[in-house]
Amino acid sequence: MIELRDYQQALIADIRAQFRGMDRTVLVQLATGGGKTVTSAYMVKTAAQRGRRCWWVVHRREIILQASRTFWSMEIPHSLVMGGSIGDVDAMVQVGSVQTLARRIGKLPPPDLIIFDECHHMGAAQYQQIFEACPRAQIVGLTATPWRLDGRGLGQWFESMVQGPTVADLMDRGALCDYRLFAPSAADVTGVATQGGDFKRDDLAKLMDKPSIVGDAVAHYRKLAPGKRAIAFAVSIEHSKHVAEQFTVAGISAAHVDGSMDSGARDAIVSDFSAGRIQVLTNADLFGEGFDVPAVEAVILLRPTQSLSLHLQQIGRALRPAPGKPHAIILDHAGNAMRHGLPDDDREWSLEDRQKKKRGAKTEVPVKQCPECFRVHQPAPECPQCGHTYATQAREVEQVEGTLEVVDLDAIRARKRHELKSARTLDQLIELGKQRRYKYPVAWAGHIMKQRQQWRAGA
């Protein structure tokens, strides 16, 4: 039987408080790897025991099967509702795909509680169909990144939001592992059009399906993550296949998977990867969400994206702790870390739309690259690696195409954590939020104070 962590128990208490306060729809923000499935499964178990019918809704077959294993490990009887599964209509708990559940509305008893996993997909036709068909059900949405991929907020569907610990907090607790991030110079995406809030897929595929653009992914894997199990995120199916071919030719066991493959063949490949018989698993848009293999030691980012949500979802695949895994390795060949920042940066989440950057505004994260040892780090008077002292006059960093260098985390984390620990009162936290230019500094400060009170109570 899985036991809940203290912050998971606190999240459930917060959700119930919102329901008691007459909110019918509540969004739960918890970082990838923080245990959203376990937390929501506990809610489903207690609800079903009280005679309430529950639907746990997700959009991919792989995530359904993973969730089912979690439910059985928590002794939660349930029925599977997905293609190829008849299921049990009378089961109190239905774990199913959004596609199949949408088709079976009216054939299943109406639910009292619906939990939408990866709810940043809300607004898609089948999610909307289920949402509108169950006006009496209480609804919980789960996501690490409460914005749609186009940057729209989720306030249209959820009345309130409760938040779990930050990524940095989860790393401190050991719930997520540390990481090492290596970043090349960003590919030149100047001529790539934008569509739906992100780079247009066809244009991006033409740009990125060329090893010369970002350097040799195989060589960097051999240098920085040799022998480690890695997931590579490509732009398109063809791009993913080409990446897998490059690894295979180099003598590194690799395989490509995509949603159009036979489910049996795809499951076999994923099983071989989980068992370590395949070292590199390449995909396009298949494993950015919900793919839970703690032994994943590295991610290889080969798809530039304007979406912070997509970036963090992909990085999160490698942040789950596992025995013998001191840290995750992130090989960013797409320049996404320079657009969106580090995985454990403090971020302010909201149900409102994400603020759009002004056209032409600089989006790169400010960093320095040492001319002596090539380490990349937060701007500082000297290099933390070799001690090289920079000239007083700031200058643009010259980036060498195709060369990966480690992004230093120590100075960044030390400064931010010192700032946070030094802010002891609510007023000090609000002021810190304003300094960091958070849109809602008061709400953020209140969330931090509430977390501190919960941790003290549980200490």
Description:
- With 459 residues, the protein is of the alpha/beta class.
- Helices cover 36% and strands 15% of the residues.
- It has helices at 6-20, 36-49, 61-73, 98-103, 125-133, 167-173, 201-208, 211-214, 217-224, 237-249, 263-274, 308-316, 336-340, 410-422, 426-435, 441-458; strands at 25-29, 54-58, 79-81, 93-97, 113-116, 138-143, 160-163, 178-183, 194-195, 198-199, 230-233, 254-257, 280-283, 298-301, 327-332, 368-369, 376-377, 405-407.
- It has a seven-stranded parallel β-sheet.
- A hairpin with a 6-residue loop joins strand 16 and strand 17.
SSE inventory with pairings:
Elements: H1 6-20, E1 25-29, H2 36-49, E2 54-58, H3 61-73, E3 79-81, E4 93-97, H4 98-103, E5 113-116, H5 125-133, E6 138-143, E7 160-163, H6 167-173, E8 178-183, E9 194-195, E10 198-199, H7 201-208, H8 211-214, H9 217-224, E11 230-233, H10 237-249, E12 254-257, H11 263-274, E13 280-283, E14 298-301, H12 308-316, E15 327-332, H13 336-340, E16 368-369, E17 376-377, E18 405-407, H14 410-422, H15 426-435, H16 441-458
Parallel strand pairs: 1-6, 1-7, 2-4, 2-5, 3-4, 5-6, 8-15, 11-13, 11-14, 12-13, 14-15
Antiparallel strand pairs: 8-18, 9-10, 16-17
